[in-house]
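To: structure subgroup
Subject: Chain for Friday's discussion

All,

I'm putting the inputs and outputs inline so they're searchable in the archive.
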Amino acid sequence: MASPTPSIRWGIIGCGDVCEKKSGPAYQQTPAFELYAVSARSPGKAQDFARRHSVPHYYETAQQLIDDPSIDAIYIATPPDSHLELALLVAKAKKICCIEKPMALNFIQCQQIVDAFESQKLELFVAYYRRSLPGFIALKNALDNGKIGRIRQISWHYSRPPSDKDLSQTQNWRTDKSIALGGYFEDIASHGLNLMSYFIGPAIHAQGICSNQQQLYSAHDAIVANLAFENNVTGSASWNFGSYLYQDKMQIIGESGVMDFAVFGDSPATIATRDDSQVINMHTPNPIQGPFVQAIADHLNGTSIHPSQGESAGHTNWIMDKILGVL
């Protein structure tokens, strides 16, 4: 049995909404970890976050946080246009790293990050936290155990109306094509595409058609894609961010059954076969990244292998780049 992991001190770069609710509390609540320091670009934001969340230290720059010798590991929770620069600085400092998803602006940047950490023999994680949620683990186990037989095809269709922020054309990095060419696709679709390869295996083909139907912002708002996976499974997907209909449905069809579930939220999943039907509880914990962060602790402790590391996260960027036509 592996010996307990000594307390690992984490620093977080970026103090936005994700850290407030999803990830920051997870790093504080994981027994083997300590949230030791935070930094943010906006003056006073790190200090405010540290005060409200009882974080003992804060810095006004990322470099100051990275250079702190008391910090063992760093979570990069900034917009993706800064991920490459910050990740390379963390690798240079020889520290463990977790990067918020998507891993970087594109697949080439992901490769640079992976190479930097591999050359230093450093652990690299990417926050595709759904791979660690109990409901999605249960679905994967059902697939791996042949519940619906050999998998034939997978599809995902996601649509939603524009937000008030979209309609008012308020500045938003998620819809700025210089940061996210695919708009919300890069934030939303990355989760589902990552799950597809988690369930099915690596994709070998991805191709898309992209459009800006609403002209509310510079990025795409409507995308369709076809996919092929290395085990002869076919796939399709669509995303529309200007639709009347809210829809989030992933379906996996096998030779003897079908699985239906949503990527987001906690609606129950269903598995129907020739012999029976089953409902899977998809309840999400609070904080939602709790199991993901605990899995990092387990990985560092040597008790399990983390499901979301640099290579699989980079593959998700490869799929997105292919769909967007930039690779």
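Points worth raising on Friday:
The chain has two domains: 8-129, 134-284.
The mean pLDDT is 96.

D.
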